[in-house]
Design brief:
It is a multi-pass membrane protein. There is one protein chain. The chain is of the alpha+beta class and 593 residues long. Strands 1, 2, 3, 4, 5, 6, 7, 8 and 9 form a 9-stranded antiparallel β-sheet that branches. A hairpin with a 3-residue loop joins strand 2 and strand 3. Helix 6 packs antiparallel against helix 10. The radius of gyration is 25 Å and the shape is globular. About 4% of the residues have low confidence.
């Protein structure tokens, strides 16, 4: 192994460690590695920037706009709501909802699908007394399975396609992956409807947790001079036995922390009382003279009655700029004109005042915000707005524009299917039509694009180039072949799949595909087998992120709203991951080899 190979491999190991321990946002970690490769001379400027002009990456950017435009109308949302209303039992409900959802995900970006449908499912479940946790992980998994069916189903497929073109290969057609994607999706859905459903936890939904006894939400109240029980003990002040609430900590003079709070603890002016429990009871508490709810804004919960503010449920993204900062440090109030009144973190009681809570991916924030908050931040990269608790989930848009956008989507699919235009040209034309007919504005188009995802993809492509250029990909391929070749091509396919899938669970799906594709192509060339089959295997394995909530954005979106634990994903996702792997390897071996 040469010095350059050792340098690149050490960088990759450091990158993996930083991503696993969430030292910084994934896109910034991978972009930093790219800059180091450029400064070290491993990559030239053209090589480092090649990912930013890669056809696959640019197609992903355009597809964000197409998907956002189609979903802007709310037509698909209303269609799914009607399907759910007429369902008879859980199996019928799953068939009615998740089969169409998988089909939509084959042609639309699955992240906005999950963001849009999460509140619809939660509301439907809560109205029928069904635990939303029985439906939200399946929602995420169904969109992932659907994304494997076509080239445009997920950004990973497009990135692999773009890389193959860069390597001088033919790339995928729109339906190259379909021969594997449809059987995998069908088997996966059958598993979710049967065994998977039984393995899912029976958790209360977000709305139920607010209405019922819950001790997982943190809120803060400040004692003022007007409080009628100053100088009295907690018990005398009536703060000990509150229905649905528990006083877990008192913060005094911003540095003294009293925890646990005893019945004999004396209440003083300026004390910050940290409660955990019911939001509705906390709202009642602020009616007591001298207790003020800390929202970080000028909004007051009493404003809910006149409709001037909303309560909004938002989940912190794994690509958020809010990560690793306290709510106060992130200047949340001034940035979003919204206040955080409660924070929910799975399986963990947070002992801190609201402003000092350091946010993590998957945290659920209960926000008090203006009526235009959902419209302004629905496409934010910092968090996923999964429901507005007081306003309709979808915005009322012009129905004619909605049907027109769906028509353009179908036309785009047909032009690619018939071979008239490449995927990139077809999506570019669709975006041009949307802009020229004013179905969307340039400002809206910009909001739909997830620039952090594009930075991650483009940077990952440069790292893949470094692996090829230094010979590291060739060396890793040789090591894997020495082990797997005597055991046969099927074992080699399993090795490639498992490595790719492990990478996608601990880093990101696009980065996993970019790292494994050069290795897979080297192995295919050495074995003189069709590299298309290896590329399909890597695309499927990189998308099949079922075992952790952090491997795929859609898993993270439902993590907080479903009240899941990390182990729930392992319990439900591991058998599904095995089914997808065995099915994929079997089909790919028989079709391409």
């Amino acid at each position: 192994m040469s010095f350059e190979m050792m340098f690149v491999s050490s960088l990759l190991l450091t990158m993996f460690a930083m991503l696993i321990f969430e030292v910084a946002r994934a896109d910034m970690v991978i972009f930093s590695v790219l800059i180091i490769l450029l400064l070290s001379g491993i990559l030239t400027v053209d090589e480092a920037l090649s990912g930013f002009s890669n056809e696959g990456m640019l197609t992903v950017a355009l597809l964000f706009i197409v998907a956002g435009t189609v979903q802007k109308s709310g037509l698909i949302d209303r269609m799914m709501e009607r399907l759910l209303k007429n369902s008879r039992n859980h199996t019928d409900s799953m068939l009615r909802f998740f089969v169409p959802t998988s089909a939509f995900s084959a042609f639309l970006n699955n992240t906005p699908i999950v963001v849009t449908f999460t509140p619809i499912i939660k509301k439907w479940c809560e109205n029928r007394g069904i635990a939303p946790s029985k439906f939200l992980i399946p929602l995420s998994y169904a969109t992932i399975l659907g994304g494997m069916i076509t080239l445009m189903g997920t950004s990973t497929n497009l990135v692999v396609h773009g890389l193959m073109l860069d390597y001088g290969l033919d790339g995928f057609s729109l339906f190259t992956l379909t021969v594997v994607g449809i059987p995998v999706a069908l088997i996966g859905l059958v598993y979710l409807f049967t065994i998977g459903y039984k393995l899912l936890p029976d958790n209360k939904g977000f709305g139920q947790q607010i209405k019922e006894d819950s001790k997982e939400y943190i809120a803060e109240m400040q004692v003022t001079q007007d409080f009628g029980h100053l100088g009295r003990r907690v018990e005398q002040a009536g703060l000990r036995d509150l229905k649905g609430l528990y006083l877990i900590e008192i913060i005094r003079d911003d540095f003294q922390r009293i925890s646990p709070v005893r019945s004999t603890t004396v209440i003083q002016s300026g004390d910050r009382l940290i409660f955990t429990g019911l939001i509705s009871t906390i709202a009642d508490l602020q009616k007591i003279k001298g207790l003020e709810l800390e929202t970080g804004t000028n909004f007051d919960l009493d404003d809910l009655k006149d409709g001037s503010i909303n309560l909004v449920d938002a989940v912190v993204s794994n690509q958020s700029s809010l990560l690793s900062k306290s709510i106060k440090q992130s200047q949340f109030r001034s940035r979003y004109d919204a206040g955080v009144i409660a924070v929910h973190r799975n399986n963990e009681r947070i002992r801190s005042k609201i402003g000092d809570i350091v946010l993590k991916p998957g945290d659920s924030l209960l926000l008090v915000a203006g009526t235009d908050f959902v419209e302004k931040y629905q496409q934010s990269n910092d968090f996923f707005v999964v429901s507005s608790l007081d306003t309709p989930a979808s915005l009322n848009q012009n129905a004619k524009k909605g049907w027109f956008s769906i028509l353009i989507l179908f036309a785009m699919i047909m032009t690619v299917t018939l071979g008239w235009l490449s995927m990139f040209k077809a999506t570019a034309l669709a975006v041009l039509v949307f802009l020229s007919t004013k179905v969307i504005t340039p400002q809206e188009a910009k909001k739909y694009v997830h620039f952090n995802v594009l930075l991650l993809i483009a940077s990952s492509l440069g790292i893949g180039t470094a692996m090829m250029k230094t010979g590291l990909a060739d060396w890793i391929a040789a090591v894997l072949l020495d082990f797997g070749e005597p055991l046969g091509i099927v074992v080699i396919l399993f090795i490639i799949y498992i490595l790719t899938n492990v990478f996608t669970e601990i880093i990101t799906n696009s980065a996993a595909a970019v790292i494994m594709l050069p290795i897979g192509i080297e192995m295919a060339q050495t074995l003189a087998i069709d590299p298309i089959g290896i590329a399909v295997l890597i695309a499927i394995a990189a998308s099949a992120s079922f075992v952790t909530p952090i491997g795929y954005q859609t898993n993270l979106i439902v993590y907080g709203p479903g009240g899941y634990k990390f182990t729930d994903y392992v319990k439900v996702g591991f058998p599904l991951s095995l089914l997808v792997m065995v099915t994929s390897v079997f089909i790919i071996y028989n079709v391409w080899f």
